From TrEMBL:
The keyword Transferase does not apply. One of its GO terms (cellular component) is plasma membrane. This is Thiamine transport system permease protein. It is found in: Cell inner membrane; Cell membrane. It comes from Amycolatopsis xylanica. The keyword Cell cycle does not apply.
Length: 548
């Protein structure tokens, strides 16, 4: 064998070995902290006989029917509200759109407990309508960002030609634009349905005892009734529905990515004309809808039956009426900041490594490497589609087998939160890494730079802003995570969302005011973080929402 060929072969082998070692980190994390707990729950449902009992129970199908019905209604509402906003963000050039982008994205990253209390401030009695509206409120950003990402790249000349031939603006949209947008709309609808079907905090707060979904029933059976086999069976039923939604979403996303290749390559935004002003008005009405619960929550946090008061904010220095909390509100806030920091650091390590591996696999020739990349990318998204309550439940029944019994470790909550935000970080970092000109990497390698130095000298400077934005986005999501955290946080070290849920479950005016005050603080922190991320410019191009 010639020496150059031997050196090239040796270099390729070394690169493949290094890539495999890098891939072991994110894949190993997913296996231990996601696949194992979820499969354990599924196995428990089968071995205990609970699956057969649950499937034969009319109560299970009633819960499943309500879960799917409220998710479907919320999805329809979110799509209907999100399309005008997508038009505003993608096709319109008006002052103030930067603020609109922030206002639309804030609800998506608000803690579920905050959204639940915000809608409770508007509709104190809760009920089905408030659940549907709250879930739609959460997910308008998914529709608006996903559809706008494709709409902004469509060539408008086809629709213009239809209108020149006598078609009305509505007919041109229905016949030309809408079919082209269909993949993005389907992709967004599948993700929204997924989020609504696994909605936890919103249903728990607004549904009360009357309205329950599979997600809240799993929680109640585990925590209140200690019915582990029944909860495991319900988790399996829910997992089947979630898997179906994930498959639909994956197919729709592939179609959307294909459609994106037909981009016009130019800025198509302009001032609205004629009937387009009605669409802009509808979009602004949706923004008003998004603002209403936020304003109601802020007002509710400083109002009592006796007038305006900051008693809820000052009460955070204590433990609430009749010792509702085992720690003060500020200690719970400190716990939230600490666990979110740990979760974000862990998620950034796993997410960035996974993104590097995916980019490398995409550059590697051959179907095997491409197939491995697609499989790994899909696996990294799975935690978003599986109930956080199911994952938390799985931790309780599996992690005692690891050295040191992680169930009592302070790392347990950060591990669960990291699992939730890793997919979001990958979706933000991966497109930016893929956009780096491969010739720059090749030039550095030709000059003798090692793969690690190529990453440090080429990739890192070009992706630094995106990495900072991803870390900030992940931190905000971890700060408000409630589903798995409510299972895993110990009473003596609750996070702020868990403390809020405890406060609203206890009687007393002070407890109620403290809950609203804590939610207002979480909301303000979230809004400031989203605004900062938008200024970095990462939200505009490749966001966790936009990449779904």
């Amino acid at each position: 064998m010639d020496r150059p060929v031997a050196l090239a072969t040796r270099g390729l082998t070394r690169q493949t070995t290094g890539l495999a070692l890098l891939a072991l980190v994110p894949v190993g994390f997913l296996v231990v902290f996601f696949a194992w707990p979820v499969l354990a729950i599924i196995g428990r449902g089968f071995t205990s006989g609970g699956v057969a009992t649950a499937i034969a129970s009319g109560e299970t199908w009633k819960l499943a029917g309500f879960t799917l019905a409220q998710a479907a209604a919320s999805t329809v509402l979110a799509v209907a509200a999100g399309l005008p906003v997508a038009f505003l963000l993608s096709r319109v050039r008006l002052p103030g759109l930067a603020l609109v982008r922030v206002l639309v994205l804030v609800p998506f990253v608000l803690p579920t407990v905050v959204v639940g209390l915000a809608f409770k401030a508007l509709w104190p009695d809760g009920g089905l309508a408030s659940i549907v509206l709250a879930n739609a409120f959460f997910n308008v950003a998914v529709v608006a960002r996903t559809v706008a990402g494709l709409w902004s790249h469509l060539d408008s000349r086809a629709a213009d030609a239809g209108r020149a031939l006598g078609a009305s603006p509505w007919r041109a949209f229905r016949s030309v634009t809408l079919p082209t947008l269909a993949p993005a709309i389907a992709s967004a609808a599948a993700v929204v349905f997924l989020f609504c079907a696994t909605s936890f905090g919103v249903v728990l707060i607004l549904g009360g005892a009357k309205y329950r979904t599979l997600e809240t029933e799993i929680y109640l059976r585990t925590v209140n009734l200690l019915d582990l086999s029944g909860a495991a069976a319900l988790s399996l039923v829910q997992f089947a529905a979630v898997l179906a939604a994930l498959l639909v979403g994956a197919l729709a996303r592939k179609r959307r990515e294909t459609a994106l290749k037909l981009r016009s390559g130019k800025d198509t935004a302009r001032r609205p004309v004629g009937g387009e002003w009605w669409v802009v008005a509808a979009a602004l009405a949706v923004v008003g809808f998004l603002l209403a619960p936020i304003i109601a929550l802020l007002v509710r946090s400083v109002s009592t039956v006796d007038g305006w008061s900051f008693a809820g904010y000052t009460g955070l220095a204590g433990r609430g009426a009749q010792g509702a909390l085992q720690v003060t509100g500020w200690q719970a806030a400190s716990n939230s900041l600490r666990t979110a920091s740990d979760a974000t650091m862990l998620a950034m390590i796993i997410g960035v490594l996974a993104s590097v591996v995916l980019v490398s696999l995409r550059r590697t020739p051959g179907r095997v490497a491409r197939g491995m990349g697609e499989a790994m990318d899909a696996a990294l998204m799975l935690p978003l589609g599986v109930s956080a309550v199911t994952v938390g439940f799985g931790y309780l029944v599996t992690l005692d087998a690891l050295p040191g019994d992680l169930r009592t470790s302070p790392l347990l909550v950060p591990l669960a939160q990291a699992l939730v935000i890793i997919p979001l970080i990958v979706r933000m970092v991966l497109p930016v890494l893929r956009s780096v000109d491969e010739r720059l990497r090749q030039a550095a390698a030709t000059l003798g730079a090692s793969p690690s130095r190529v990453w440090r000298e080429v990739d890192l400077p070009l992706t630094l802003r995106s990495l900072v934005a991803a870390a900030g986005f992940g931190y905000v999501v971890a700060l408000g995570e409630f589903g798995a955290t409510s299972f895993l946080a110990r009473p003596e070290s609750p996070t702020l969302p868990v403390a809020v849920a405890t406060l609203i479950g206890r009687p007393g005016v002070l407890n109620n005011q403290m809950a609203y005050a804590a939610c207002a603080l979480l909301m303000i922190v979230t809004a400031l973080a989203v605004a900062a991320i938008d200024r970095l410019g990462a939200v505009r191009g490749h966001t966790a929402v936009g990449e779904f």
